[in-house]
Each structure stands twice: as structure tokens, then as C-alpha cells.
Specification:
437 residues; CNF1/YfiH-like putative cysteine hydrolases; 9-stranded mixed β-sheet; 6-stranded mixed β-sheet; 15 helices; elongated; binds zinc ion
């Protein structure tokens, strides 16, 4: 694949400037009859209608150019276009892939003050007139957080050339401060209320690891360090993490005023956390088991559930919804459940015994849904635990459109995600995090 970078398509030229003057008047010109960019920016960014007017003039020039590039590219090379008004102009449909390059709001303000020599107030109104970071995360295929000094062009090319990007219609694969992680597009819609993520293989949340000579060692220092890294990226305080001692149970604990921390005795034998309190970071660790993120936007309540095959068998998803209904009077129709990456039916091979256990328990479901599949070549079976969770959630009253499947199999993507099936006792752990902010 060959890639050519098309620099910004912001139009220049006399005709374009003439048009702008005819709409906004000559008062925007300086003494040498050039547009006074600072004055003009002051007008545009303080009045949304005027900004829209400018955008529509700009698009008249940019749209034909992008269409031309898009049509020609198949004859030549793949082209990367830098187009800030891509979504406003509906031109995104001409692109095979969209990548957003975002930065923290404060950093953006700092940068444009320096670059354009404007006041803080001017910079703020300019930034506030633009789409939010989350808008781009929800709508683009990929997203890069532009930290100072990083080579964006190089990073974009790497994403295009990499076959390891896990973005799909449900999740976006993000790159920030050298760390990769996933977020659900649907949960990003509530980015002013919650923060969440699923970490990938560059971080490890397994406190016990096996050294090369088979010795079991504590990894708590590294785990703490990795919590700090991911929490810094998400702009939340790692000191607020609650991480229970998971045992594949169906026990779910509601967090009220308990002290936070990792692997605390009062959080032993706990595989799910619920809270309606802000700044309590619910974190569970996974290697093939199913993470279930719950959010009720009406009541602003979150839950984080560890549903491995044993948890799924014990119907921990049902337990979670019941607890939310009983303790918080949640209406399940308002509940969103995002099902994180886990081992999918393609790879979850089980013996006859486990298959029989599942068949006996979910007999009714098995008769109408394709949950258990017999292997064609071996005497093994494949079980669809994601489908079981989806059915349980629907039985408990969740709407189909509020159940979001990441569609990512951890074993199939074990180059990017820790997978127990792949690495056995040497496997690390991913973490699912959700918090009210
Ligand atoms: Zn798989």
C-alpha cells in the first residue's frame, strides 16, 4: 500500500478572499488590503451563524477538490487528506478511513495562543466553536491524541499500514501518550458524565506473574504503575481505583463510602462493582472473560462486571441488573450494557462436560438459539457466551439497541490483547475501567 499525504485543503487565492469580503465587508481588511486574520477570527468565533457562513463559503471551494482527489486516488495511490470540515460537509462518505487527531483542550488553547499570538479569551472562543474531542472519537475510525513533539504524519501512516487496529462500528482504538486502549463509541456519547476504557497488551494488570523458572511473583508495583499510566491518559486519579479480588463468583458489591484500593480484604470474592458516586474508579481485570460495562444515564449509575464462563453460567449479568433495579430503582429500559472484548464462540472450545453443564442450564435458550456448536473435526464444542449474556440482558428488560457488543475476540487478537487461552499461566491481564466524573 502506498500513501501520499495531501496537505491541508484550506483554500487560498484571490477569488476566495473576494467572496469573503463581499459577505463580511471590507472592515475585516487591514491597511494593505489583506484580511486581518486576528480581527476576522474574533468575528467568526464569537458568532456561530457567522462561522457557519464562512464554513459554507469555504466548502464551496473544498468539496470539489476532495471529490476530485477521492476519484483519482483509485488510479494512483491512497491519499491522506487533512480536512477539518469533513463531517460538516458530509464528505466523510468519500473516505475509506477517517482518523481524528485530537489534543487536550488546555493544550490546544496554549498552542494557538503561541502560534497565532492571540489572547486566552480569543483562543477559548475559537476552541469552543469547534467540535468536541468525543465527537471525533465517536465518528472517526481511528483517533490519535496529539502530544507535543510527536510525528503525526508518521503515526497516521503507521495506523494505515497496521493490521492490528481494532476499531470497528462499536469501539474505537485510541493512541495517547504512547498507550493504546479501546473505548465504546456509545459510552463516549456520555463523555461529560463517565470515563471508561479497555486496556490492551502494552499494559498489564496481573498482580501474579510467572517468571521463566516457573516461580510465582508479585507484580503489584508494575500494576500500580500501569494504573497510573492509563488513569493519566483518561485524566482521572489512579488513587481512586477500586479493584476487587475476583474469584469467578456472582457476588456484586455496591460502593458507598468504602476506602478505595487494590485487592483489599473487604473486596475479596467480588466479581462486580456498582456505584452512583463520582470519582470512584471501578476496575476489574480480564484475560478472555467478558467485561460488562453498565450505565444508566437517567440516574447516573455505573456497574462493572466480570463475567467469565463461570460467571456467565451463574448469570452474573442477571444479578447485576436485578441489583440495579432493587437497590437503585433503575428502569432496565434506560440501561446501556457494553460487552467488552472476550473469548468468542470462534475460540471458546470446551469439553463434553462443560458443554453439558451449559446445555442443562440454558436448555430453553439452546433450543431456539445457536449457542452450542459441535466441532466438525474433534470431539469438542464451541459456546457463545456473548449470546448468552445478550439473552439474559434482554430477559431482564434491556433494549436490544442498548446492548453493545465489542465484536472483538481476545484469542483471535492475542497479539494486542492478553488472552489466557493463548498464553496460559504466563498470560497478563487487561483491565476494564468505568467511573462517574
Ligand atoms: Zn476467536
Amino acid at each position: 500500500m502506498q500513501i501520499k499525504l495531501q496537505k491541508s485543503l484550506c483554500p487560498h487565492g484571490q477569488e476566495y478572499y473576494k467572496k469573503i469580503c463581499s459577505v463580511f465587508g471590507n472592515s475585516i481588511l487591514d491597511e494593505s488590503k489583506n484580511i486581518n486574520r486576528r480581527k476576522f477570527a474574533g468575528i467568526i468565533f464569537s458568532d456561530i451563524e457567522k462561522k457557519q457562513k464562512l464554513d459554507s463559503i469555504t466548502l464551496e471551494y473544498v468539496v470539489p477538490k476532495i471529490k476530485e482527489i477521492a476519484e483519482n486516488k483509485r488510479k494512483n495511490k491512497d491519499v491522506v487528506i487533512d480536512a477539518p470540515l469533513l463531517f460538516e460537509s458530509n464528505l466523510d462518505k468519500y473516505c475509506d478511513v477517517t482518523v481524528s487527531v485530537v489534543a487536550d483542550k488546555d493544550k490546544c488553547i496554549e498552542r494557538i495562543i503561541k502560534r497565532d499570538k492571540i489572547t486566552e479569551e480569543e483562543a477559548k472562543s475559537r476552541i469552543n466553536s469547534q467540535r468536541s474531542q468525543n465527537f471525533f472519537k465517536i465518528n472517526c475510525n481511528y483517533s490519535i491524541n496529539n502530544e507535543d513533539g510527536e510525528d503525526i504524519e508518521k503515526q497516521i501512516k503507521e495506523i494505515f499500514l497496521s493490521k492490528e487496529n481494532l476499531s470497528n462500528e462499536s469501539v474505537i482504538h485510541l493512541y495517547s501518550q504512547g498507550i493504546e486502549y479501546l473505548q465504546f463509541r456509545r459510552l463516549l456519547e456520555y463523555g461529560d458524565k463517565i470515563e471508561h476504557c479497555f486496556t490492551l497488551k502494552d499494559l498489564d494488570f496481573n498482580i501474579n506473574y510467572k517468571s521463566d523458572n516457573g516461580e510465582s511473583k508479585s507484580n503489584i508495583k508494575n500494576v500500580l504503575n500501569d494504573y497510573k499510566k492509563i488513569c493519566d491518559v483518561l485524566k482521572i486519579d489512579y488513587k481512586n481505583v477500586y479493584k476487587p479480588i475476583q474469584t469467578h463468583s456472582k457476588n456484586i458489591k455496591i460502593i458507598k463510602d468504602e476506602k478505595q484500593g487494590l485487592y483489599l480484604p473487604e473486596f475479596e470474592n467480588v466479581d462486580g462493582l456498582i456505584t452512583d458516586k463520582r470519582n470512584k474508579i471501578l476496575s476489574l481485570s480480564f484475560a478472555d472473560c467478558t467485561p460488562l460495562y453498565f450505565y444508566d444515564a437517567k440516574k447516573n449509575i455505573i456497574a462493572n462486571i466480570h463475567s467469565g464462563w463461570k460467571g456467565t453460567y451463574q448469570e452474573i449479568a442477571r444479578e447485576a441488573v436485578k441489583k440495579l433495579k432493587e437497590e437503585f430503582n433503575v428502569n432496565p429500559e434506560n440501561l446501556i450494557c457494553a460487552i467488552g472484548p472476550c473469548i468468542k464462540k470462534c475460540c471458546f472450545e470446551v469439553s463434553h462436560d462443560v458443554m453439558t453443564m451449559f446445555y442443562e442450564k440454558f436448555k430453553n435458550i439452546c433450543e431456539r438459539e445457536n449457542i452450542i456448536q459441535e466441532s466438525k473435526s474433534t470431539d469438542k464444542y464451541y459456546i457463545d457466551t456473548t449470546l448468552i449474556n445478550k439473552i439474559i440482558l434482554k430477559e431482564e428488560g434491556l433494549k436490544e439497541e442498548n446492548i453493545i457488543d465489542s465484536k472483538i475476540c481476545t484469542n483471535c487478537n492475542s497479539n494486542k490483547i492478553h488472552s489466557y487461552r493463548k498464553d496460559k499461566e504466563f498470560s497478563g491481564r487487561n483491565t476494564a475501567i468505568i467511573t462517574l466524573i
